Amino acid sequence: MPSFDIVSEINMHEVQNAVDQAQRELGNRWDFKNVEASFELADKQVTVGAEQEFQVEQMIDMLRMAFAKRQLDLRALKEEKESRSGKLVRRHFSLREGIDQPTAKDLVKRIKESKIKVQASIQGDKLRVTGKKRDELQETIALLRAAELDIPLQFDNFRD
What is the pTM of this model? Predict the structure, then answer.
């Protein structure tokens, strides 16, 4: 019986490259000369820090551009909190991986409401979709790609 998995993963090596690229661009910009500003990646969390709020906003745009150049989905970045310490303003972004339970239930509900003859089952942080025909599975993939979701989805492990 044909099946495929729906996952939400992010390539951490490419994330590291994007953060490094944004840090290099920060060093090349004249408006950040003699300014204490940096990008940090640790434990699936990106921290953007600078002296002024508007500088942090510019740095976030630089980070988003670096993500786009590396073909990383921007929906994987989730803004967590803002912190101030001394003269530094920091913004923290977590990297989303895996499909959480409420989102998984929503995806299963969308698949069932579409009346496509497939079965979706939640397996930890991924979903497995099985059906009798390959066309029905491809129809399901097209349905989920067209949906407006707040997490990036990948479709892998397609078995015929």
Answer: 0.82
Mean pLDDT of 30-52: 91
3-state secondary structure of 15: helix
Rg of the chain (C-alpha set): 20
Please give the structure tokens belonging to residue 29: 């910009």
CATH 3.30.70.860 fits 3-8+98-159, yes or no: yes
Residue 57: C-alpha distances to residues 31, 61, 122, 141 (Å) = 13, 6, 38, 35
Count other Cβ atoms within 10 Å, centred on residue 86: 7
Q: Mean of the pLDDT values across residues 94-118?
A: 92
Position 158 scores a pLDDT of 84
Give the HSE-up count for residue 82: Cα atoms under 13 Å, Cβ half-sphere.
9
Domain with residues 12-95, CATH architecture? 2-Layer Sandwich (3.30)
* Annotated domain spans of the chain: 3-8+98-159, 12-95
